[in-house]
Amino acid sequence: MSSTAPETASTQPGERPALPDINAQTYPFEIVQYLLDQAGYFNLYSVPNETGNAPISQSGSITGITISEQLRRFEIRMRGPSSSRGFLASNRTGGRVGQFDSRWVFIPDNFVAVPGREPPPTALDPSRAQRFVILNGKCTFEGGHDGFEGFGTGKTFPSLEGGRSKLLVAATCTLLRGFGRFHNLEGTYTYVGTLSPDSGFRGSLLIRVMDPEERLQTENPLPSIEASEDPEPGVTYLLFRGQKRDPNQHTAYSFGPDGQVNGLDVTQQLRTLDIDCAARGEQGIRSSREVGPVVGKMSSQIAFNLFNPGAPGTDVAPIPFKSYNVYTFLDDNGHSIGSFDADGSEGRTFNLKLVGAPGQQALRFGAFGPVLNGKGDFAGVEGLMTDNSVVGVAPHAIVTMYVVRVNDPSKKYRAASNLG
Q1: Is residue 54 part of a domain?
Q2: How far is 39 from 183, CA to CA, in rounded Å?
Q3: How far is residue 294 from each of residues 78, 227, 342, 389, measured CA to CA in Å?
Q4: With bands split at pLDDT 50, 70 and 90, how would you rate the model's confidence at 224?
Q5: Domains identified in the chain, total number
Q6: Which of 205, 206, 213, 207 lies closest to 184, judged by CA?
Q7: Cβ atoms of residues 165 and 195 within 8 Å
Q8: pLDDT in tens, 234-262
Q9: Hey, which residues does 278 pair with through a beta bridge?
Q10: How far is CA 190 from the centre of its chain?
Q11: Quick one: 180 exposed, middle or buried, by C-beta within 10 A (0-12, 13-18, 19+)?
Q12: Measured between alpha carbons, how far is 405 from 160 in angstroms, rounded to an integer?
């Protein structure tokens, strides 16, 4: 959070401070919500290129992986839940839209990662969770004129899927420098999928780029997905959007045992979300978005102190945060058909400038963590969640995107065909 955060009044020990109203409107709620939604959305599926993926070794140990990703269109279509059939999603990949090259290097748990800083050699240990840093990231879309350089951090999650050991990974990253249509734009991207020292990364890459000049957005229909390949048999990806019901759905401060602010309690609606992109033809890279009906609700406990954030919130010094989210899914009658939690213990926050609203505080968030405590239709669910969010502060408007990678060998959550 920047130093412009409102100050609290002085208090006596044990007293709760007098706090500014986070729901007050610097600008009308609807305007801030609109500005937060001015973004290019790129829902992509990453597969390893035939060449360019290789382990990085030192002293006989794997200390990182050179990653070369082929980026494809990724269609995740959701069908709202009912008491009879639960939640279903179709997953389809399409043609290539770009490429992403980077180095994923394993780091000690206490390593402070910044762009250009090389970590001490740290051996991969696939038997335990480990942090890693993503360096020298460069994303180029078809044609090579549009793209960006980026940086981020992530974590491995050793897992068993189908009786086989897999190294699951998730990461949150930020744009450092854009070129072409991405010049001077801000954005966050999140990864969730699997990692192999020999073949690289495979899975979801979700990019949100703030786009006040609408360089990246289109309301025209995009070409149909050319293929219907099942990207990961035994796995289903879910995609949701979170937003407040209206300005009256308020956010509240949470307090620690000492009576001081230690975070926020947030509630929001969950809606289906269709996002797509295309990169061929004279128009170049462009994205589309369609927000669907309400399918549930989410409550979140966010460990993030607006008044003492601990970092400036820049690309090279983001503010750390933690969240614990509870997702509840509702049928057409408003009855719960199931729920699960997600422990977003690895979060990064960046200051965001909203063009068109001088003085309006806003933030970009990226986070990830394991799915836990499934109930009802989600009893026994195993998976990883990523959170790619933007919010306003006074008013506290929210536009969140969640990708959930679910271990689904029985295809319980997978629709038999594309959902129109």
Answers
A1: yes
A2: 14
A3: 11, 29, 20, 18
A4: confident
A5: 1
A6: 213
A7: no
A8: 999 999 999 999 999 999 999 989 888 99
A9: 286
A10: 4
A11: middle
A12: 14
Write down the pLDDT at residue 401.
97
CA pair distance 178, 213, nearest whole angstrom: 15
Residue 293: both structure tokens together: 């009906």
Residue 106: how many CA atoms within 13 Å on its side-chain side? Answer: 23
> Does 378 reside within a domain?
yes
Task: State the Cα angle at 149 between 145 and 150, rounded to 5°.
Answer: 150
Which stretch of 66-80, 227-241, 257-271 has the lowest confidence by average pLDDT? 227-241
Indicate whether 220 belongs to any domain: no
The amino acid sitting at 270 is L
Residue 99 tokens read as 């490429």
Structural domain of 37: 29-211+230-407
For tokens 């360089």, what's the residue? 215
Instruction: Answer yes or no: are the C-beta atoms of 153 and 348 closer than 8 Å.
Output: yes
| Spatial separation of the C-alpha atoms in residues 36 and 233, rounded to whole Å | 35
Closest-CA residue to 39 (of 397, 319, 387, 286): 286
- Residue that is written with structure tokens 């995609």 in the block: 239
CA distances from 112 to 107, 154, 171, 313, 315 (A): 9, 12, 15, 14, 13
CA distance linking residue 352 with residue 38, whole number of Å: 13
Give the model confidence (pLDDT) of 264-311 as tens digits: 999 999 999 999 999 876 678 999 999 999 999 999 999 988 888 888
Residue 20 lies in a domain: no
Rounded Cα–Cα distance for residues 110 and 102 (Å): 22
